[in-house]
Amino acid sequence: MGMRVVRYVEKEGSRWGVLKEERIIPLEGTYPTLAALLREGVAEARNALSAGTEGIPLSDARLLSPVTSPARIVCQGANYSAHRAEAGLKPERPPFNLIFTKADSSLSGAYDPIQLPGHVKLLDYEIELGLVIGKAIDAPVLVSEENLHEYVAGLVISNDVSSRDVQFVEGQWYKGKSYRSFCPTGPFLYLLDKEEVPDIFNLDLKLWVNGEQRQAANTKQLLFPPDETLTELSSLMDLSVGDLVMTGTPGGVALHLTPEAFDQLSNPFLPGNKKLELLIESQKDNPRYLKEGDVITCEITSPDGRIHLGAQENKVVAALNSTLVQ
């Protein structure tokens, strides 16, 4: 079995621990980043887990994102057929893998508030399986299901929170998805045993808004699976230990576009004010976008329950100083 690792607040800083049942067993080592923990602290975590010390109640700890800055956050877009269809795209696998990034300053904890900027009118949610890189990639490599365990250390829940009005009106995915708090991650980092790596291809993703289930899918449905994606990424960029690769969101997001609307919004020659009018008009009767006070809950588990990445619960609040950005 793998193990669940948490990062939590202690005094003015943070500390790592390993989860045993509902108690955190603190690690003695000081690991300033996730990369340091993966390089130097895994053996300590395993020893702490087997030692069975009493630890502290999980409910007493304020958990932080287990993915730490600095880190690359590399994302796959439109990687489930149902999400492609609701976004106005053809539902079959496209000829290319859509890749974009998020700022690591968007990382936040699994129970931290999501800050809604005042100018954002179409705030959306996207549950995604996050892969934590466990081996540096600095040259092209062929990643397969057989050697995937060498490159993926563990799994986390991630939520690719998105401003659709910025993303589509300005044509800037990075900007629309990188506001502070737009990447809740955790609560746990599940460090995989080698034998569990095949389970990556059979995990259930579920998301609720205010108790209403919005998203449900299985990673069997990924159009570009992790081994193929890491192979492609290795041909164009470096990945470091502790980086996060987000594998795409399933259907059920708030965004819903017709193919005609998507084509118009993708037109680089259509002025921004016209795009905004088109987008707002196309979404005017859509009640699914997030607003202040909404609570988003996310879970990722294996069907048999052996792997459980915990549950996120994030409330939408008004961002501080949001009126400074227009």
Query: Approximately what portion of the residues adopt beta-strand conformation?
Result: 25-35%
Overall geometry: globular
Arithmetic mean of pLDDT = 96
Query: What kind of sheet is the major sheet?
Result: 11 strands, mixed
The total of beta strands comes to 20
Could you give the order of the helices and strands? EEEHHEEEHEEEEEEEHHEEEEHEHHEE
Q: Terminal Cα separation, in Å?
A: 49 Å
Number of domains: 2
The CATH homologous superfamily of the largest domain is called Fumarylacetoacetase-like, C-terminal domain
Low-pLDDT parts are: none
CATH fold name of the largest domain:
Fumarylacetoacetate hydrolase, domain 2
Q: Give me the number of helical elements.
A: 8
* Radius of gyration, CA atoms, in whole angstroms: 19 Å
CATH class category of the largest domain: Alpha Beta
- Helix and strand content put the structural class at alpha+beta
CATH architecture of the largest domain: Alpha-Beta Complex
Helix content: 10-25%
Word description of this protein:
With 326 residues, this protein is of the alpha+beta class. It folds into two domains: 3-64; 73-324, Fumarylacetoacetase-like, C-terminal domain (Fumarylacetoacetate hydrolase, domain 2), CATH 3.90.850. Helices cover 19% and strands 30% of the residues. The chain contains eight helices and 20 strands. The longest helix has 12 residues, at 272-283. It starts with a strand and ends in an 8-residue tail after the last strand. The mean pLDDT is 96.
